[in-house]
Amino acid sequence: MTEEPGSAKVASGGVVCSFCRRRAAISQKSTGLHLCQEHFVQDFESRVASTLEKNGMIRDCERIAVAVSGGKDSSALLLSLHKILTGRDVELVAVTVDEGIAGYRDDTISAARSVASGLGIEHVIVSFREEFGYDLDEMVRGKSVAPCTYCGVFRKNALNRMAKLLHADKVATGHNLDDEAQTVMMNYLKGDYERLMRFRPKSARAGLVFRIKPLRQMPEKEIALYCMVKGAFFPSRECPYADLSLRADVRDMMNRLESLFPGVKQSTVSGFEGIVSQAGGATKVELAACRECGEPCVGQICKACELLAGLKSI
Ligand code: SF4
To answer: N vs C: which end of the chain shows fewer Cβ within 10 Å?
Structure first.
């Protein structure tokens, strides 16, 4: 077996599936099971289905805007949702946000187009340039602020606007267990209690299309394997800005810890959920309409308009 950081190992050699004796593709530390490709796919999809079910994430007659960047997480999200929801009265529409990152986003957009068209799912693309007048590359040129700050704010804004245009009931994103653990840990490390509490599950709020994260219990390594087994192509190159964020260091730290102490990613997330339930569950922040763009926000002006004003003033 090949040692890998994460809660699962890629199986090799003579390890066989716990169910059918075929060659195992993966060994799960959390369950002690060895799974061949076929049983792994079944297990993956049944865990995603169980997350949907437990949290009542998707109901019949809903239209779901699935955020598909073309990376492995969102490709696995679209593939698994399509499989799980086939036969149900639920409509999926894939939405790709083109931030305008030269030498990176074009490849992932092709991958998003290919996975959506392979499944016969409508696919729309919304770009920062069309929505806000600038590519991300232009926004961050010569700035000391981390590109991910601009990217995250404008991407959320663009997705929400597009989801409303598409009359979507919900937006599904490909955040996985690793992302969730990193976000909790980053906020602990920054001592950012407010942001940490904002990460609590949200109740529905006017103007904000409700967001769901069906892959939030799935480790990144299993997501990559799922894409491989399903034959989904995704570019392996990382965003050129990824290393400039605190998240990159936290990701490396969490991977190292997980290889030493299997289960720490899961316990980081479940520990936070314990704190959330002690703190009274879902957040109920009242939102107002931004006086510039009308999008929901906490104060008088949303973060996207605040950042845009900064860009225009230069
Ligand atoms: Fe955007 Fe940062 Fe992700 Fe790159 S790494 S796509 S800049 S959030």
So the answer is: C
